[in-house]
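Much of our argument rests on the idea that a fold can be written as discrete symbols. This step matters because it turns folding into a mapping between discrete strings. The record that follows shows the chain in one-letter code together with its fold in token form.
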Amino acid sequence: MYMYNSWYVAAWSRDIDRSLSAHTLLGQSILLYRKSNGEVAALENRCAHRHVPLSAGFISGDDVECAYHGLRYNSDGICTRVPSQERVPGKARVRAYPIVERYGWVWIWMGAVEEADASKVPDFSRLSDKGFASTGGTKLVRANYELITDNLMDLSHVGFVHRETIGTTEMGEKGVIKVDRSEQGVRVTRWVIDVPAPPTHAKTGLVPTDKGVDRWQIIDFEPPCYVNIYVGSVETGTGAPQGHRQGGVGLWIMNAMTPIDEHTTHYFWGVGRDFNVDSEQATAFIHDEISRTFDEDLAILELQQKAIVQFNHPASVDILADAGGVQSRRLLRGLIENEHATESDSRIQQAELAN
């Protein structure tokens, strides 16, 4: 089950041009293309005539021409031409989806069109803020999107999965965790004091390797599938827990998980930093390190998904470190159930009016 009345990341803006591209989102095939004025259009990826995917066709001006019988559709999904006849059937139309471009991403609204509100696009502004150096990419993960959220909300695994990058065992063994409900969702805060710097942080040269550091992880979940993580480390005893976090490593890790289906996910990620912002070398280093970290996660997540299917979705045993993930799942589940209940009530009312 999905939450449909939400914005989802469909693609990076840089990847959408005047060509036709098909994207499977929440189990639905969506056609994306860029119009001559630069705006992105999103249509249900099928012709209303004989259901051939429109992505197999051609762009004609700002319309899309079906490869089978040449029917054309405008960016509102309305058929504008049927080559074999003058009259266009009134039912010859496909669904068009609201689109917003922001922070370098193309956002699509998958629910009721009248509910689409651009102000509800989650805040990933550090991807485009000139005060930060940012980079990012996309990974195909053969696992359910909620498993990725669980993974991000409980970073006690970093000492085991990420030994060569961001991990030290102290993050799980010595971490002091606090879980709160925020205005947008759920926040998990974890601190570890006076521990060795992890390999990725040490390689920046900004934290000591001969003495301890204080590390923090501030993780914010916003339903249905967004996680912003502020992580960092500075030399221990310099006041990081009190808010003095300059002079060390500070990274904002931005994550948007768009379901392809129940077992596969488009994982859009970005990372921003406020140190060495003009250094292309630093950007390349951070990109490679974070990408490698996510690849380490990906391997575990795909093994996890296979086991869940093989053992027919067994019940999971929760531990204390799962508190943030458990609350995030409960919040999302409640929103999905409420959305489906509202839709069901609406259908009943419409049926009663029809009678």
Remarks:
- Residues 125-335 form a domain with the Naphthalene 1,2-dioxygenase Alpha Subunit; Chain A, domain 1 fold (CATH 3.90.380.10).
